[in-house]
Design brief:
Layout lengths: L4 H10 L9 E4 L3 E4 L3 H6 L2 H7 L7 E4 L9 H17 L3 E3 L6 H7 L8 E4 L13 E4 L2 H10 L2 E4 L3 E7 L8 H12 L8 E6 L6 H9 L8 E3 L4 H9 L20 E6 L6 E3 L7 E3 H4 L6 E5 H4 L2 H11 L9 E5 L3 H9 L2 H7 L2 E3 L20 E4 L15 E4 L2 H8 L12
Parallel strand pairs: 2-3, 2-5, 3-4, 5-6, 8-9, 8-11, 9-10, 14-15, 14-17, 15-16, 17-18
Antiparallel strand pairs: 1-7, 12-13
Helix pairs in contact: 7-8, 12-14, 12-15
Length: 420
């Protein structure tokens, strides 16, 4: 009997010939991601850090992204503490305010690679499965211990095999696909399971794979992973990663799965997740006409260049409804620079969009887009929990960049297929 992706990676990481679902293994991850929460994490172990220091200078990946620039004195003090920690401990991979959202930056800078193990004190660390990495979130206490020891434990997850067939239709996106899957499985349908994507994955761009992997945690998955194919290799080539620096891993043909599902991509249509759970998914056509006051284009889910271009394609030469605040949130400085260079930002701003610095900001209700009571936001982010954007009396709806852009024209939820 063959092994799944997760079984192979964790067996190799633990120095074992084979592992099985449910088995506890100890591994030494290639990297540990932290962000603005680094200050709280190192605060747990200050005495040990003074005495022993971190185990490896190249282990941490620290990105300041959640509240950037600092919105208040408390946040500024936290950022200052992190910069002091980075300098004192010789942290090799630190990305200060403005570089981008941690999940985009980790991949752009070549830290997440095929077959590697990357953990992070953020639930959306699962995003790096897009490039064939075993990537998962851990809590702050585990992160603190990992900084000191270089090791952590993981339970080998069972695996769901998800086969994708065909291609998505025009105006239908990877966001529609992953929301449809979450709606089918439920928010807990893949809890502590690995999700492998098989089949016609070559039809999905790297940006689309990031969107899907990013939302693996919204179905409860421990990891969500794609094979390392030519799309992956070309992407890694484009960011300067040498092919000899990674070793892809994939499941054996006779691997055993907990569950197998098939999705016909041609049958996927534009959908929206209604408040206040990500699995409350409906076709856009069924709830079209719903009014909203704010649109959010971007975040670690849909803030890449192709996402912004998709919205600009709809908005170019048109104007956002006067009753809508359309926020533009690039996932990184690199994305922003590319979108400036090709006219994408100009088109979005000319249509009435408000450009924000690369970061998390309004996605978690930190600043720059907090909602008022009774308002609705149509967002390309990954969560629509009550209070997520700073107000428990507001509502968040999740959709694709094209759906948000098409809807912003009228201030009402609109099927993007109806907009030329």
């Amino acid at each position: 009997m063959g092994s799944t992706f997760a079984e192979k990676v964790l067996a190799r990481g633990a120095g074992l010939d084979r592992v099985v679902p449910g088995q506890i293994v100890t591994v030494a991850p290639d990297h540990l991601l932290t962000h603005d929460n680094t200050a709280a994490i190192v605060g747990k172990i200050e005495e040990d850090l003074t005495r022993h220091g971190i185990v490896r200078g190249d282990l941490p990946l620290i990105v300041l992204d959640h509240v950037v620039p600092a919105a208040n004195e408390k946040t500024a003090a936290g950022h200052h503490k992190i910069r002091e920690f980075v300098a004192a401990q010789g942290v090799e991979n630190f990305y200060d305010v403005g570089v981008g959202i941690c999940h985009q930056v980790v991949v752009e800078k070549g830290h997440a690679l095929p077959g590697k193990i990357v953990v992070g004190s953020d639930s959306h660390t699962c995003s790096y499965g897009a490039v064939n990495a075993f990537a998962t979130g851990i809590d702050r206490t585990e992160a603190a211990v990992l900084l000191l020891t270089g090791e952590t434990w993981l339970r080998v997850p069972p695996t769901i095999r998800m086969t994708l067939a065909g291609q998505l239709e025009h105006a239908v996106s990877a966001k529609d696909l992953v929301l449809t899957i979450i709606g089918d499985l439920s928010a807990g349908g893949a809890t502590y399971q690995a999700v492998e994507f098989h089949g016609d994955v070559a039809s999905l761009s790297m940006d689309e794979r990031f969107t899907i992997a990013n939302m693996g945690i919204e179905m409860g998955a421990k990891i969500a992973v794609f094979p390392a194919d030519e799309v992956t290799r070309r992407y890694l080539d484009s960011i300067g990663v040498d092919r000899s620096s990674y070793e892809p891993v994939w499941a054996d043909p006779d691997a055993r799965y907990a569950r197998e599902l098939v999705y016909d991509l041609a049958q996927i249509e534009p959908v929206v997740a209604l408040p206040h759970t990500v699995d409350n998914v409906r076709p856009v056509r069924e709830v079209a006409g719903l009014e909203f006051q704010q649109g959010l284009l971007g975040t670690c889910t849909n803030g890449r260049l192709s996402d912004l271009r998709s919205a600009a394609e709809v908005l170019r030469g048109r104007s956002v409804d006067p009753g809508v605040r359309l926020l533009i949130l690039p996932a990184s400085r690199d994305v922003l620079e590319a979108a400036l260079a090709d006219g994408t930002v100009a088109a979005l701003v000319a249509a009435g969009g408000v450009l924000l610095p690369p970061g998390c900001g309004p996605c978690l209700g930190a600043h720059q887009g907090v909602l008022a009571p009774g308002e609705r936001c149509l967002s390309t982010a990954n969560r629509n929990f009550k209070g997520r954007m700073g107000c428990k009396e507001a509502e968040i709806y999740l959709a694709s960049p094209r759906t948000v852009a098409a809807s912003a024209l009228s201030g009402r939820l609109t099927d993007p297929r109806s907009v030329g």
